[in-house]
């Protein structure tokens, strides 16, 4: 039995458990929120105020760089990109929409500050903007491939401008990201370009694996391969973000590697909770229709954990997943309940806590002072305490 299957069966328990079926991912220890010291909760992390402020500061720092970069795009590409970021309406008039939470640029800036102080943080703004451009390149492409109709509570770019324009706008964002770093005079920029390019290749490989898995039936898909795919798709960019911050702080290679591992583990925890939200989150808060992943037979982590649980509910779920979804015939809420009864929800939340524990170990290697690491701890906790 694999390590992932051991955890699914409850043989391995995480150091921190997650309160079940409360706001998703709320972390508890003996019924109380975890606070203080090392570990999820960290300094000021229990209520998320520190993380929210770091995200706000990141948004303020990178938005001018992003707007400047998007302003260099030719008219039609710029129009799609500005719409996607929420800064324009489809007709080109200004909008005040959300450009996202800025988790990845916040990780770049906070990592730089943790290892190099305010000067390193200021120097890493272009790198933070580059990571955010890469993230949005993947979102534009993902929406086309997944046929998602809404993002950030508005129609996705492909539904407004068409597949081709959305794909090409995403390609342009990737080019802008690499150009930002290539033109940056900072001594770490060359290493940052190489690391970000490698990350894009890993992201694409993870997405290719994901789409290939969607074409396969439910039989034979393992938790190990699904976890590896999720790390490539989500963990790789968060790891790259924290590693770039370390590079811009002039950190030694072992610290860069440790922060990359920290970001990857936190990123996988993020994906696990995101998958839980995709199945059981409130559509009024997520901006996405309930059960959308189940309708397209997506092999999300809770679903694969349920399918491989060996329970009678797993067999029933596999039978459903073996045939196409029929609107008006299959009750998606009942399908989600099958995933839960087969243990998929509890496994995903426990696995998220386990990955957070690993993330904390890696962070302690690079930043042994809990006070210096406080911002990264707060951000890591934030991504697994979301309910939207």
Short note summarizing the structure:
66% of the residues lie in helices and 3% in strands.
Number of helices, counting only DSSP H or I runs of 4 residues or more: 17
Strand content: under 5%
CATH superfamily: Farnesyl Diphosphate Synthase
Spatial order of the strands in the main sheet?
1-2-3
Please count the beta strands (DSSP E, at least 2 residues each).
5
Topology order in helix (H) and strand (E) letters: HEEEHHHHEEHHHHHHHHHHHH
Overall pLDDT, averaged? Answer: 87
In total, the number of domains comes to 1
Low-confidence stretches: 1-47
Query: What would you report as the Rg, rounded to the nearest angstrom?
Result: 20 Å
Which architecture would the CATH scheme give at its second level? Orthogonal Bundle
**Given this structure, which CATH class is correct?**
Mainly Alpha
Shape: globular
CATH topology: Farnesyl Diphosphate Synthase
Question: Distance between termini?
Answer: 34 Å
The assigned structural class equals mainly alpha
Considering DSSP H and I runs of 4 or more, what fraction of the residues is helical? 55-70%
Main beta-sheet annotation: 3 strands, antiparallel
Enzyme class: transferase
GO molecular function: (2E,6E)-farnesyl diphosphate synthase activity; dimethylallyltranstransferase activity; geranylgeranyl diphosphate synthase activity
Region (Disordered): 1-44
Keywords: Magnesium, Metal-binding, Transferase
């Amino acid at each position: 039995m694999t390590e992932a299957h051991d955890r699914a069966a409850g043989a391995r328990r995480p150091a921190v458990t997650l309160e079940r079926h409360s706001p998703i991912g709320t972390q508890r220890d003996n019924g109380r929120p975890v606070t203080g010291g090392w570990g999820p909760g960290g300094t000021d992390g229990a209520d998320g105020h520190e993380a929210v402020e770091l995200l706000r500061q990141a948004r303020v720092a990178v938005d001018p760089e992003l707007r400047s970069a998007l302003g260099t795009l030719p008219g039609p590409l710029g129009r799609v990109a500005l719409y996607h970021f929420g800064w324009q309406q489809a007709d080109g008039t200004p909008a005040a929409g959300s450009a996202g939470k800025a988790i990845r640029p916040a990780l770049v800036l906070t990592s730089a500050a943790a290892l190099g102080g305010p000067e390193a943080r200021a120097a890493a703004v272009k790198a933070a903007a580059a990571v955010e451009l890469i993230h949005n390149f993947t979102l534009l492409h993902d929406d086309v491939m997944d046929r998602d109709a809404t993002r950030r509570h508005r129609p996705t770019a492909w539904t407004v401008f068409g597949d081709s324009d959305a794909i090409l706008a995403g390609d342009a964002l990737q080019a802008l990201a690499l150009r930002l770093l290539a033109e940056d005079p900072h001594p770490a920029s060359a290493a940052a370009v190489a690391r970000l390019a490698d990350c894009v290749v890993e992201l694409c490989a993870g997405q290719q694996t994901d789409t290939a898995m969607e074409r396969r039936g439910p039989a034979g898909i393992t938790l190990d391969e699904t976890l590896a795919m999720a790390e490539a798709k989500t963990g790789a960019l968060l790891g790259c973000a924290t590693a770039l911050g370390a590079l811009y702080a002039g950190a030694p290679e072992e610290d860069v590697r440790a922060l990359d591992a920290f970001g990857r583990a936190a990123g996988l925890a993020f994906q696990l909770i995101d998958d839980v939200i995709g199945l059981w989150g409130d559509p009024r808060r997520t901006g996405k229709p309930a059960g959308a992943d189940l309708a397209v037979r997506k092999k999300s982590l809770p679903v694969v954990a349920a399918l491989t649980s060996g329970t009678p509910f797993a067999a029933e779920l596999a039978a459903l997943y073996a045939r196409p979804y029929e609107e008006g015939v299959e009750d998606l809420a009942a399908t989600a309940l099958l995933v839960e009864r087969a243990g998929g929800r509890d496994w995903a939340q426990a696995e998220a806590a386990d990955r957070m524990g690993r993330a904390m170990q890696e962070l302690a290697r690079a930043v042994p002072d809990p006070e210096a690491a406080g911002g990264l701890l707060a951000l890591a906790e934030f991504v697994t305490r979301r309910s939207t």
